[in-house]
Design brief:
By secondary structure, the chain is of the alpha/beta class. The chain has two domains: 154 residues, FAD/NAD(P)-binding domain, CATH 3.50.50; 153 residues, Polyamine Oxidase, Chain A, domain 2 (Alpha-Beta Complex). It is built from nine helices and 20 strands. It has a seven-stranded mixed sheet. Strands 9-2-1-13-20-19 form a six-stranded mixed sheet, sandwiched between helices. Strands 10-11-12 form a three-stranded antiparallel sheet, with no helix packed on it. Strand 10 and strand 11 form a beta hairpin. Helix 1 runs parallel beside helix 9. The longest helix has 19 residues. It binds flavin-adenine dinucleotide. Flavin-adenine dinucleotide binds next to helix 1, strand 10, strand 14, strand 18 and helix 9.
Length: 345
């Protein structure tokens, strides 16, 4: 649908929730502009390229239960942007101090982006108007020249320099972790309160490269009774570069909270020691770096799938609303787009 003056939306956050919301609105004829503080799109569906290898250091894989998300995944697979992942996957209990392995019940289909997790986000971003490197510091709603209320977005660049305000938006979407959304929703108090009521929790990650193949006896493991909760050989995923032995380690929620402000080097050392105990790895990695996800996932559950205020001309979406996963983020974005489209009719 092409209209002379289509309704418009500013979407803050080009993670999966923001991208799905944007695509849906744009497909319905909206003029949409996304803003993201990072250099690229995808948010926590992240891939880090380093001189010691490529790592998916945020989301590791995704599952699909809802028919709408299953259809999206089928399309990504058909486009060659995703593939099923069937790792040698185990559960490891460290409660006794020594690793006790057990099988992981099958029946779950896991997919990954190909050749990286971030590929999915880049696919969703095609054809969208996105301002990357643009940190939104305020969103203001006020009367436009025609008298109607519209949103103006204030942003700064990577160096903190103010960018020209961008205005004329009928709708504002905050598509980011709840604490970050709350800071931008001051003009819509009900939404701000909703975002504040749903906290997020951290996760420390370590990206480690070994000089030689590491024979752990598995590709990935869910871990209990350890500072770590997940470890995976990145190269075991389809389409990855296997020339280097790259592993991703994720710390448990409680441990990450207790180490939230600890120096990255100290965190890295503790997580590598836990890794050594789990795998029995005889050699230390050639290079390892720790990365802190301050807002890794939701710390509470809710029956809401998005936050929406038709009068206030705004909404919020993200995994903290519709479930702590890639699927939840996508569905939350679609749900919010549906609410905006219904209200704009
Ligand atoms: C360590 C880790 C492991 C995970 N593992 C899995 C897994 O195995 N399977 C799974 O399904 N899910 C997993 N997840 C969860 C999954 O990654 C998220 O649910 C999903 O990516 C969230 O998408 P989102 O759009 O809600 O938020 P985000 O991806 O966080 O996107 C928000 C975006 O907003 C931007 N932003 C924030 N503030 C501003 C601002 N002021 N101005 C401009 N831009 C801003 C950010 O840069 C970001 O790009 C994992 C997450 C982490 C961190």
């Amino acid at each position: 649908m092409t209209q002379p003056n289509p309704p418009s939306a500013a979407i803050i956050g080009a993670g999966l929730s923001g991208l799905c919301c944007a695509r849906s609105l744009q497909d319905a004829g909206f003029r949409v502009r996304l803003f993201d503080k990072s250099r690229g799109v995808g948010g926590r569906m992240a891939t880090r390229r380093t001189d010691h290898g490529v790592f998916d250091h945020g989301a590791q894989y995704f599952t699909a239960r809802d028919p709408r998300f299953r259809a999206m995944v089928a399309q990504w697979v058909a486009q060659g942007a995703a593939a099923p992942w069937t790792p040698a996957l185990v559960a490891i209990d460290m409660a006794s101090g020594a690793p006790v392995r057990s099988a992981v019940g099958e029946g779950t289909t896991r997919h990954v982006g190909v050749p990286t997790m971030n590929r999915i986000a880049r696919l969703l971003a095609e054809g969208l108007d996105i301002r990357t490197g643009s940190t939104v510091v305020a969103a203001r709603r006020g009367p436009a020249s025609g008298g109607q209320l519209q949103w103006t977005v204030d942003a700064v660049d990577g160096e903190g320099a103010a960018l020209a305000p961008e205005g004329g938006f009928d709708w504002l979407v905050a598509a980011m972790p709840s604490p970050q959304a709350a800071t931008l929703l001051g003009d819509v108090p009900a939404l701000q309160a909703g975002a504040r009521s749903l906290p997020m929790v951290p996760c420390w990650a370590v990206l480690a490269t070994f000089d030689a193949p590491l024979d752990a006896g598995f590709d990935a493991a869910f871990v209990n009774g350890s500072p770590l909760t997940w470890i995976a050989r990145n190269g075991a995923k389809p389409g990855r570069d296997t020339a280097r032995e790259c592993w991703v380690l994720h710390a448990a929620r409680d441990w990450s909270e207790s180490m939230l402000e600890a120096p990255a080097e100290a965190v890295c050392a503790r997580m590598l020691e836990a890794f050594r105990r789990i795998t029995g790895a005889a050699t230390a990695p050639a290079i390892a770096r720790a990365h802190r996800w301050r807002y890794s996932g939701p710390g509470a559950t809710t029956d809401l799938t998005c936050l929406f205020d038709a009068q206030g001309g705004a909404g919020a979406c993200g995994d903290w609303l519709a479930g702590a996963r890639v699927e939840g983020a996508c569905l939350s974005g679609l749900e919010l787009a549906g609410r905006i489209l219904a209200a704009a009719r």
